[in-house]
Amino acid sequence: MPIVTPVTRLLDINSPIIVPPMAGCSGGALAAAVTAGGGFGFIAVGLGYDGTGRDTVEGFEGQLSLTRSLLNIPASPAPLPIGIGFIGWLLDLPGAPGPTLLNIALENRPKAIWFSFGNDLGPWIKVVHEFNEKIKGEHKILIFAQVNTVEEARKAAVEWKVDAIVAQGIEAGGHGRSAAPLLFNFIPALLQSLPSPHPPIIAAGGISTGSQIASLLALGASACVVGTRFALSTECLYPPSHKSAIAKAGFGATVRTLAYDYAGGTAMWPEGINGRALRNKVYESLEGGASEQEIREKFLEAREKSDEDYIICWAGVGVALFNEEKPAEVLVRELHEEAVTTLKATSEKFAGST
Questions:
Q1: CATH fit for domain 13-240+317-349, picks 3.40.50.620, 3.90.1010.10, 3.40.50.2300, 3.20.20.70
Q2: pLDDT digits (tens, 9 = 90+) for 251-275
Q3: CATH 3.20.20.70 occupies which residues in the chain?
Q4: Which of 28, 122, 151, 186 could disulfide-link to 63, CB 3.0 to 4.6 Å?
Q5: What's the rounded Cα separation, in Å, for the pair 60 and 64?
Q6: Which UniProt keywords apply (predicted)?
Q7: Cis link prior to 197 (omega < 30° from 0)?
Q8: pTM (2 decimals)?
Q9: What distance, in Å, lies between the first and last C-alpha atoms of the chain?
């Protein structure tokens, strides 16, 4: 049974489940499998697919070709029924391949492009609007903007004229605003504050079960981003050490900090942004008073020894709600069925109540 929302209509999908562009995890195979399952998957751009922490034109084109092959889509300019995600500050970085990669993405005509974490995403969003004007009538690339505050959401809706707003709560794994609101407060705040009509709201942060998806749809979200659950999917590019750590994680296993960016050499995020990851010796080094340079040196030394106590494993607060690796297509269908069952059960439970 499909779940029909403004986002599922916008993307022409059956399930309001979106798997985000997760660096080091979301490649062509994951995006294709999620889309094949009835949801909507993204390829991440910016920090590599092979553990190097950087992207190349060849690597990105390889992921796009893989997606086309798995979904049996002809070569460009045939549109791709997936999304592609870009990090704003990496697009801004002088000499980096970001603008070239964005042009490659546009020429491949994905269904959507997701922008996040920029000091000013407006110029990059304008590039997509201009490309859409150029190919008017052939295909429209939808624009998603990730936000952490009501003010950012208003700017995305009114000034940038995006097609969907991704509202990320503080529960989310990976990077986000350190002072972001709780998701269950953020969604109502956006619905009350944004001018009408406004782009549909997509909820993100700590979502790992179908019942959570159902509750957020009831709260007013039009779709849900499910990230960490798909980090433990067959198609995720994470190495076995990361997947094992995710499978073993319990409640309270994550921490929000810049320690992992110090370790990975990526502490260039916009002001107020940090990351949520599995707590381990990287974070303990920071707590113990180690400097940014000392944390980096300890991490590099541990990586040479394959010391799994020092890995960088991004994860949201919902990481404790699952422990089994499954194919992404299966996960989409299971989450969808659980969401449908929860919505039906809730309706029946309160039917006739006064």
A1: 3.20.20.70
A2: 999 999 999 999 999 899 999 999 9
A3: 13-240+317-349
A4: 28
A5: 6
A6: Flavoprotein, FMN, Oxidoreductase
A7: yes
A8: 0.95
A9: 29
